[in-house]
Amino acid sequence: MDSQARMKELAAQVLEHRRRYYVLDSPLLSDAEYDALERQLRELEAQFPLLTDPNSPTRRVGAPPVDFFPKQAHRVYMLSLDNAYTEGDLRDWEARLLKGLSGAHPTYAAELKVDGLSLSLRYEQRHLVEALTRGDGETGEVVTENARTIADIPLTLPEDAPDNLEVRGEVFLSRRRWEELNLQRDTRGEARFANPRNAASGTLKLLDSRIVAQRRLQFLPWQMLEAPDHAEAMTRLATWGFASMPARIEGDLATVLAFIEAQREARLKLPFDTDGVVLKVTSQAQQEILGTTDRVPRWAIAYKFPAVQATTLVKAITWQVGRTGKLTPVAELEAVEVAGSVVRRATLHNADELTRLGLRVGCRVFIEKGGDVIPKVVAVVPDSMPTEAPLPVIPTACPICAGAVGKDTDEEVAIRCLNPECPAKLEARLLHFGSRVGLDIEGLGDALVEQIVTSRRFAQPWELFTLLQDPGQGLAFLSNLDRMAEKSAQNVLSELAKARTKPLGRWLHALGIPMVGAKTAELLAEAIPSLEQLWGTPETELHAVEEVGPKVAASIRAFAALHPELPSQLLALGIHPTPPESREKGSLPLSGTVAVVTGTLPTLSREEAETLLKRLGAKVTGSVSAKTTLLVAGEKAGSKLAKAQELGIAVQDEAWLLAQGPA
Length: 663
Known about the structure:
This protein has 663 residues and is of the alpha+beta class.
């Protein structure tokens, strides 16, 4: 085989293995084997530079820097999109389409609107020859060398692709990579990227493509020019080596509206940012009939979700004390709407994070909600720091009880209140104790808990059950609190009575043992079915419980040592946590089932339905896949139901689930 043929063969192998590693996430070679393959190609290219293909996969690491990006006119304008914010906006848009199509009903494609920057790729003889940014829509910048570094942009297309082709899509940065880059910038004392979109945009416009390669941008296509059918074109692009949109659907407007509803929360769990859903008429013939304005195509529109990021003013920095005594700085903010809710406070996590962000009262900050429900401060808006703004003061005493503060270990970042009688710690512990993930004691909210702590009658959360020892006195105590009528007080006592026999797993979580979350508590209850036994289990034996490592085991033993009489105290209060059912898992009705719950069920919350499924022996997951064997669906089931039907997975409702066993 001659050198050029060998180089071509090696290039094809390297490209395929890169695609499997970066796009499909299913590598066939070890890193060492892949490196050896690429090294052979580099050596041949160094030996025969005139034979080197400009689209060689070795160009993925970047070329020498350029002085500027030349401008180039788009062959077909890259137009913007009109925005819709409500279902009414979409129905108005469809009415205009139907009028333009003389009443013919089109099929729509709906796909996620990736929050990045647009890029147009031109292929000649199936080789990438040009990459243009959107620019002003008429003219863009040529960033071909930078585009070559993006792993999921094919440099050459297979033989079944057209010789000449233009593909448009979105360049973006994953949230995980954005966080990694910000950590690197922190160590170098550089300003943080405010969000993944800014990071991606700045990266693609770097003059040194070698730095671009290190940033690991990604690309998702959203259009193939001159394709007769959009949906079919997207499918073909996936077979030619492009990444596929993780969520998309085709159908009428009702189908699209259900898809949009399903994506409101599902999109927050994706590894990249999305800010909406794009709707397109799939037929190119109908697109041509509808045409464009001077700014936007009439056949496409972007439905925008409420912003997940906004900017606002820091009015103050306060400190709150958690149930373990951890002091957490909180930014008190000028009210701003983020992802559909008004935000006035955002956690700053710890003193180190406060220092790293460089936050001051009076500056403006970026606030966001991503996959988290709790808003957080991402970065300071550049040039927004007021002159002579003082540094935040790190507490040297507890802001609530004035007790001493310190760290549990030298390695710990958080500072904690060391006073065991700190009222703020008890308040936080009581709220956790009665929360939905704890004992679910309805009525035990912020206002009541604050008054209970102020009464100084209780030192531990479980001491609330002393109110049941003399119901008359208990009722009198609660009824005398503000906004607590006799009926409300009686309801709280009834809730406490019900909680006496709630499952052991819930009790273990409600007690607030450090490092023992809900799942670990359930696993502990299954392995050690009583509090008395758990208190007597040596630390080394705790290691045998799934998900209980040395740190968790040590935390359990430390909590037991701090409250050695707790099992007998609970018994004296009439508390008898229910142990897990003793039946062998293989004998349970849904043993071996892999289940997913979706939509709104008539009477059960999703958490309750999942708990029942687990008690019946099923393994519960959050997403539908080829391994799923059961979908329990309610109203507005959305994309999970569609996927389950596509995969032939059994779909059942709440009535069927309740018939399988007691809740």
